[in-house]
Amino acid sequence: MVRTETLYELRQRVSDREAKTATKAKKLLAKGKKLTFSEIQWLLNKEVPRSDIKKALKMNGKDFADYLVQHGIPRIRTDKEDIAAMKKPSGDIELAKKLLRETDLSVQEIVKRAGVTAGSVYYHKKKKTEKKASRPSASEKGSDSMPIKEHFNKQIEELESELNQYRYDVKALEETNAALNRSLDQERSKVTEREKMLEQMNKDLHRLFREREELLQKNNQENLQKQHDLLLEYINLGG
């Protein structure tokens, strides 16, 4: 009975602490625009969603992010922004295209000068090669079928461009999904660790209570033996 009450009290303290935190967070959010920065920081530390704090302050996403950055709290990008950042090419892509058209520089040299990724340069280099291959010869220019060929070549080129872009989008989504899965695995690992810690605490409590009972039992036996010895001594003295 003692063990059950001790475990119950431990769980009750945790539950009470969480309830107090939730109550305080609710009261602070109710202050709305009157929230101070220290109160906002407390809410963030207690993992209250930023969307709830932003809603209470009646701020849009950009203003709220700027406000936090001004107070030294880094901005957290949404999943959509992460995907957009992966899709958006870095550096000067127009300069890279120009260098591809007008020079014989290597891919690595263009990467250094334009600040773009090697993948972007290879992509546009491939498009440039495909355009050259699709250009008609002098004999084809004089034929009646030339407009039709140009039309189909252009369609094929557009479809290939869309397909390549689709592949890049899929790759970006796969990378984002992998990152989310890693985060999920980390959270699962934390939960597992907490469960192991609680299990160990429970084992330790059982062990301590068992040792306590053994000590009490031993003390009782020693007291009974002393009483028995005293009684024998008394009988012997009386005899």
Radius of gyration using CA atoms only? 37 Å
Helix percentage: over 70%
Overall morphology: elongated
Structural class: mainly alpha
The largest sheet is:
none
Order of helices and strands: HHHHHHHHHH
| Overall pLDDT | 78
How much of the sequence lies in strands comes to: under 5%
Detail the poorly predicted runs: 140-145
Number of domains: 3
Number of helices: 10
Count of individual beta strands:
0
Note the gap between the termini: 48 Å
Describe the structure.
Keywords: Coiled coil. Residues 126-149 are annotated as: Disordered. The chain is mainly α. The protein has three domains: 1-76, no CATH class; 77-135, no CATH class; 157-239. It has ten helices and no strands. The chain has helices spanning 2-30, 37-45, 50-57, 61-70, 79-87, 93-102, 107-114, 118-134, 138-141, 146-238. Helix 6 runs antiparallel to helix 7 (107-114), helix 6 crosses helix 8 and helix 8 (118-134) packs antiparallel against helix 10.
What does this entry show, briefly?
By secondary structure, the chain is mainly α.
Keywords:
coiled coil; 3 domains; mainly alpha; 239 residues
Write the layout of secondary structure elements.
Blueprint: H1 2-30, H2 37-45, H3 50-57, H4 61-70, H5 79-87, H6 93-102, H7 107-114, H8 118-134, H9 138-141, H10 146-238
Keywords: Coiled coil
